[in-house]
Design goal:
two-stranded antiparallel ribbon, FAD/NAD(P)-binding domain, globular, binds flavin-adenine dinucleotide, flavoprotein, oxidoreductase activity, oxidoreductase
Length: 200
């Protein structure tokens, strides 16, 4: 059972997964690979001068997988139910589904998770199915940590922005969700701070 299930593997979802997996939470990302990043070329992502969106996706998926997340490309989440103290997810597996490391996915299509991070881009249908609060402008209503009106359910990236859509903002939202989850798990404010001696 994943501690954290992430629905959508664009910049928002992968960023959330990077932080939670790196810090010891069992993390699964489900992604149908329709990210806008495949249409983009980034010149405005700080620290990276120029990169195609698809190359960014490949690098980031590898980075997140290296840190221990299970990144399932081709597995669509079709239903989420909020249970007492957790969530149940149902997925549909495309025949070509594979993990970022190239292994085939052996999925049973049903999962439970303590936390769910929605990161489905501008597609807010999954959020609407969950009957969470929406803002007047049609975006999903979240607090500064990107938590929705349902405890332990987060919404990140394009779905919480009214047109201010940038990869670095989406990645920041994912990181916010992850730090809030990690703070809840650790029972105090959590900082994912590394120092030069941490580097290999
Ligand atoms: C033409 C174009 C050019 C752009 N250029 C730039 C640029 O130069 N710089 C910049 O910063 N930004 C750019 N952007 C914007 C950038 O691509 C977005 O801000 C960013 O991709 C949003 O990230 P996200 O993680 O919120 O959503 P997305 O990247 O859209 O990712 C959402 C993911 O969720 C998946 N998904 C949806 N529903 C489900 C489900 N039920 N189950 C499983 N998976 C699901 C989708 O398949 C997708 O892979 C551009 C966008 C476009 C369209």
């Amino acid at each position: 059972m994943p501690d954290v299930a992430i629905v959508g593997g664009g910049p928002a979802g992968l960023s959330a997964a990077l932080f939670t997996a790196k810090n010891g939470l069992e993390t699964t990302v489900f992604d149908t690979d329709e990210t806008w990043m495949h249409k983009a070329h980034l010149f405005n992502y700080p620290g990276i001068r120029s990169i195609s969106g698809s190359e960014y996706m490949e690098l980031t998926r590898d980075q997140v997988s290296d840190r221990g997340a299970d990144v399932r490309v081709g597995e669509e989440v079709i239903d989420i139910e909020s249970d007492d103290g957790g969530f149940r997810l149902e997925t549909s597996v495309a025949s070509e589904t594979q993990r970022a490391d190239g292994d085939a996915v052996d999925a049973d299509g049903e999962y439970e998770a303590d936390y769910v991070v929605l990161a489905t881009g501008a597609d807010r249908s999954m959020a609407a199915d969950l009957a969470i609060d929406f803002a007047d402008d049609g975006t999903v209503d979240v607090d500064l940590d990107t938590e929705t009106s349902i405890d332990d359910l987060y919404a990140t990236g394009a779905m919480v922005r009214d047109e201010e859509w940038q990869a670095v903002i989406a990645a920041g939202d994912g990181a916010s969700a992850a730090l809030d989850i990690l703070s809840k798990e650790k029972g105090e404010h959590f900082h994912d701070f590394d120092v030069p001696t941490d580097a290999p």
